[in-house]
């Protein structure tokens, strides 16, 4: 870690904005963005959520902000003790001085000899001498009075060393948190799953079964479960935000492995008064507004494939279709506003009894699959999840376990 990276990161977090921090420090925004990314790598945690030109502090950044600002304040006192606050920050933000280099300055002062300090850290004496000289150049201060018998720390060096210990303690706290996060992340299996349709849906029941079995059989290995669309989850597998994903898409990339778990037939769903006793499916689709999950979801993709099987494209283009990635909103549209939807038959157990299903022919099935990338860690995670699901069985006859999870 270097002083410039620490100070620039602290100013960015305090401003909450890279451009404002760059203006205050008189540096290019790209320089500050690069500094924050270096700091994020060093502590193994994201500090900013970036959305186009805007950025927002993560929860982890808010938790660490006091320590980061404290470290920056100490660094400012170490590097620029005689400058006013703003000038000191700008000066520190341009100093390429590592914490390791400062620690070596302290060691040379303690031993009174560049040669002895170099032997202790197993570094060549000329290399250490050049590093000390570079620190002096960056600071614009002489740190040692040199003589034939050794070196003596100047007053400036003594002031630097007096504050260095507190800076080291603060940075050690940040590093310890990073190590703890790394150990936790390294042991955690990260499972991404599609959004459940309701608390009684197959996805919700399967995940609850999995978490309970996991806690019983692997109490010391954390399982982290997050939700997203099928598209988001497949992207999350590629960029390593999750190890394994539970998705409802049958369009699975060839470079990942998968195991089909549960299937459920797709049906047209609507309020009882809309569908009637024996309605005609084609008439319902042509006459009623449709509320479908978006095509970013596996369910939305399957619903559109079903429409393509039932109707010519010209008629599909004429349908009143609204895409909504919220099943509760879709349910309310069906109950209160005459909309119909295409959903898994098994989902009906999660809905109001006033909603009924209309079978379609030819029928399509929604398949819930476990997917993982081709790494040893992901394969281990998938095997563990499949083992935990060994005895899972869907609660509704409308869904069926496709394969033995072994």
UniProtKB/TrEMBL annotation:
GO terms for molecular function: DNA binding; DNA-binding transcription factor activity. Signal peptide: none annotated. One of its GO terms (cellular component) is protein-DNA complex. Residues 1-58, 97-154 form the HTH lysR-type domain. Pfam families: HTH_1 (PF00126), LysR_substrate (PF03466). It comes from the Bacteria. Keywords: DNA-binding, Transcription, Transcription regulation. The keyword Transcription applies. The keyword Hydrolase does not apply. NodD regulates the expression of the nodABCFE genes which encode other nodulation proteins. NodD is also a negative regulator of its own expression. Binds flavonoids as inducers. Belongs to the LysR transcriptional regulatory family. PANTHER family: HTH-TYPE TRANSCRIPTIONAL REGULATOR CYNR (PTHR30346:SF28), TRANSCRIPTIONAL DUAL REGULATOR HCAR-RELATED (PTHR30346). This is HTH lysR-type domain-containing protein. It comes from Tardiphaga robiniae.
């Amino acid at each position: 870690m270097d002083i410039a990276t620490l100070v620039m990161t602290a100013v960015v977090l305090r401003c909450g904005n890279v451009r404002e921090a760059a203006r205050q420090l008189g540096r290019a925004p790209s320089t500050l963005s690069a500094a924050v990314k270096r700091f994020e790598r060093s502590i193994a945690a994201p500090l900013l959520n970036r959305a186009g030109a805007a950025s927002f502090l993560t929860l982890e950044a808010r938790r660490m902000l006091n320590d980061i600002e404290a470290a920056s304040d100490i660094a400012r006192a170490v590097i620029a003790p005689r400058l006013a606050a703003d000038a000191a920050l700008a000066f520190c933000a341009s100093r390429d001085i590592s914490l390791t280099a400062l620690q070596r300055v302290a060691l040379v002062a303690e031993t009174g000899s560049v040669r002895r300090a170099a032997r202790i850290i197993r570094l060549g004496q000329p290399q250490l001498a050049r590093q000390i000289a570079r620190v002096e150049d960056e600071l614009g201060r002489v740190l040692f009075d040199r003589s034939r018998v050794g070196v003596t720390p100047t007053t400036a060096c003594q002031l630097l060393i007096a504050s260095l210990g507190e800076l080291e303690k603060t940075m050690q706290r940040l590093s310890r948190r990073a190590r703890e996060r790394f150990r936790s992340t390294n042991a955690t299996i990260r499972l991404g799953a599609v959004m459940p349709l309701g608390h009684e849906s197959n996805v919700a029941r399967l995940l609850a079964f999995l978490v309970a079995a996991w806690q019983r059989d692997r109490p010391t290995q954390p399982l982290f479960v997050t939700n997203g669309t099928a598209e988001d989850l497949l992207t999350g597998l590629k960029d390593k935000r999750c190890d394994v994903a539970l998705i409802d898409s049958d369009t699975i990339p060839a470079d990942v492995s998968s195991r089909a778990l549960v299937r459920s037939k797709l049906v047209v769903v609507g309020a009882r008064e809309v569908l009637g006793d024996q309605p005609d499916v084609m008439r319902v689709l042509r006459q009623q507004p449709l509320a479908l999950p978006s095509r970013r979801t596996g369910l939305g993709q399957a619903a559109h494939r079903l429409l393509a099987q039932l109707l010519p494209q010209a008629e599909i283009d004429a349908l009143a279709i609204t895409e909504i990635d919220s099943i509760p909103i879709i349910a309310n549209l069906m109950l209160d506003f005459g909309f119909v939807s295409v959903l898994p038959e098994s989902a009906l157990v999660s809905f109001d009894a006033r909603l009924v299903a209309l079978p379609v022919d030819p029928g399509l099935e929604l398949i819930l699959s476990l997917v993982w990338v081709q790494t040893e860690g992901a394969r281990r995670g998938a095997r563990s999840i499949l083992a935990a699901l060994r005895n899972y069985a869907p609660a509704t006859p409308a869904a069926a376990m496709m394969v033995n999870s072994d």
